[in-house]
């Protein structure tokens, strides 16, 4: 299984989580079977490239996305590609990955998603 976390840098497990998943400069991907960590650049249209992040991550074999928060349309788009999304990510990639493994991150739903760009201070979208 491949788990992706939006990141601000290329520091692998010590990388800093980017709260805005679409505008993250990089995505850190952890293969839970091999423990291999790969950092890929965000080449989606949010960063001047083509395609949307869910499509791009699907093309890179991602099964799970761990992020600070996101809107419900994005949750639906990830789900359409078979990618499960969990919210509540923060700190480093290691912090987030360990929190997810411990069951501390919430499955993304309509109730805990952000409403588009009218973000409140309770969510990191």
From TrEMBL:
Q: Where is each Dinitrogenase iron-molybdenum cofactor biosynthesis domain found? A: 14-101
Protein name (Swiss-Prot/TrEMBL): Putative transcriptional regulator
Q: Which domain of life is it from?
A: Archaea
Q: InterPro entries of this UniProt entry?
A: Di-Nase_FeMo-co_biosynth, DiNase_FeMo-co_biosyn_sf, MTH1175_dom
Q: Which PANTHER family match?
A: DINITROGENASE IRON-MOLYBDENUM COFACTOR PROTEIN-RELATED, IRON-MOLYBDENUM PROTEIN
* Annotated Gene3D superfamilies: Dinitrogenase iron-molybdenum cofactor biosynthesis domain (3.30.420.130)
A Pfam entry, by short name: Nitro_FeMo-Co
**Per its UniProt record, what CDD domains does this chain match?**
MTH1175 (cd00851)
Organism of this sequence: Methanosarcina barkeri MS
